[in-house]
Amino acid sequence: MGFRLISNCRSEPIVGEDRQDIEALIDLMARLPGLGPRSARRAVLHLIKKRGRLMSPLATQMQLVADTARECITCGNIGTGDLCGICASEKRAIGEICVVEDVSDLWAMERAGGFKGRYHVLGGTLSALDAVGPEDLRIPALIQRVMDEQVHEVILALNATVDGQTTAHYISDELAGRCAVTSLAQGVPIGGELDYLDDGTISAALKARKSV
Amino acid sequence: MGFRLISNCRSEPIVGEDRQDIEALIDLMARLPGLGPRSARRAVLHLIKKRGRLMSPLATQMQLVADTARECITCGNIGTGDLCGICASEKRAIGEICVVEDVSDLWAMERAGGFKGRYHVLGGTLSALDAVGPEDLRIPALIQRVMDEQVHEVILALNATVDGQTTAHYISDELAGRCAVTSLAQGVPIGGELDYLDDGTISAALKARKSV
Ligand SMILES: [Zn+2]
Ligand SMILES: [Zn+2]
C-alpha cells in the first residue's frame, strides 16, 4: 500500500492541514443567522458532497450578488443600480409610501401583494435601550421624500413590537399635517413580526389600514 | 426627483428584475440542510448587508473548497489530495481502523480525540428499506484494507440506530477470524447519533469499547 510510504513530517493538528480550508469555510458559514457551528459543519459537508451541482453554482451566485447588490439611494431596498427595481418602475404609484423596518419586511409585503406604491426602508426602529435615534434611521430622508414627492399617504407597516410602535408614533407626529398617515391594522398579532406572518394576514391588514 | 423621469418599460415581476439574481441565490441557499426558504431569505439578506466583510470572503472560500476538496481514495474522508491528511500522516497508527458511517462522524471522533489510528468511512448504512447493500457502501474496500494492511483491530463507531447496528453485525461477521472487531460501548445512548454527542461521551465510549 503506497500510503505507508508517504513521508509527512509536518507537525499538524489532529485532523490534518488539508482540513484548514474546510474549517475556514465552516467558520464563515457559522456566522449566518440560524446556523451554529454544528449546522454549519453539516451544511459544508453537504456542499462538499454536492460540490459540482450545488457548491460551485452557489459560490458563483454568491459572488455575483456580492459584487452587484447595493442599497437603493431613494428607499433603502436592495437592488443592482442606484435605484431599486421598485423605485425605477413606472408602474408603481407615486405619492404612496409604505414604511418598513427592514428589507425582509419589504419582501414580505411584496410576496403578499396588494400594495402598488413605493417603499421606504427605515433600517431598524427607534430604541432607547440601544440608543437608536431618528438620525440613525432613514427617518429624515422619509420626511424629505414626503415633501419632495407630493406624497399623500404614508402607510406604516412596522412590526407590532414596542419599538416598532414607538417608531410609528414618532413618524406619525413628524408627518402630521403633511400627509395622511395610516398603519397596518387588522390581523397583525401583538408582538408579531411581519416576516413571520402568512401572506393573507398581511393582505388583510393592508386593506383594513386605519388612520393613526 | 430623478427617479420619476427614469423610463422603465420592462414587463417585470412585482419586485423587479433586479431581484432575480438574489432570488436565484436564495433558491440555492434553501437547498442547504437546516435552511428552508424563509431562513435562506434571512441568511441572504444578512449576507448582502455584510457583502464586503462576509459575503465575498464566503463566496471565495466556498469556491476554493469546491475546487480542491475530494474524497480520500483509501478511507473516504474529505481532503485535498488522493490521500486525506490522516491517511497521509505518519503519526497515525497503522493496523487500527475506526469505521464510521459518514465524514461528519469522523470529524466528531477527531474532535473528541483519543483515537490515533486511521478511519474508514462507509458512506451510509445497510438498509433493507432503502435497498442499500454492502456493495453500495465502502464495505468491500474495508475488507480489502483489513487484509492488505495487517489490521489487528477494527473499531465500529456506527450510530446506535437499527440500520447502524445491522451494519455493525454484518461487518463483524465478514471480518470474523481476520482481526479483532470492537465497537463503541458505554455512553452512546440508544438511538443517538455520534455527531450530536458531546466529546466526553464519545471519549468514554471509545475507552470502554468491547469485543463484538
Ligand atoms: Zn428604491
Ligand atoms: Zn484517508
From TrEMBL, chains A, B:
The keyword DNA repair applies. The keyword Electron transport does not apply. Pfam families: RecR_C (PF21175), RecR_HhH (PF21176), Toprim_4 (PF13662). One of its GO terms (molecular function) is DNA binding. InterPro entries: DNA_Rcmb_RecR (IPR000093), Rcmb_RecR (IPR023627), TOPRIM_dom (IPR006171), TOPRIM_RecR (IPR034137). Residues 95-189 form the Toprim domain. A zinc finger (C4-type) spans 72-87. One of its GO terms (biological process) is DNA recombination. Keywords: DNA damage, DNA recombination, DNA repair, Metal-binding, Zinc, Zinc-finger. SMART domains: TOPRIM. PROSITE patterns: TOPRIM (PS50880). Belongs to the RecR family. NCBIfam families: recR. May play a role in DNA repair. It seems to be involved in an RecBC-independent recombinational process of DNA repair. It may act with RecF and RecO. This is Recombination protein RecR. The lineage of its organism: Bacteria, Pseudomonadati, Pseudomonadota, Alphaproteobacteria, Rhodobacterales.
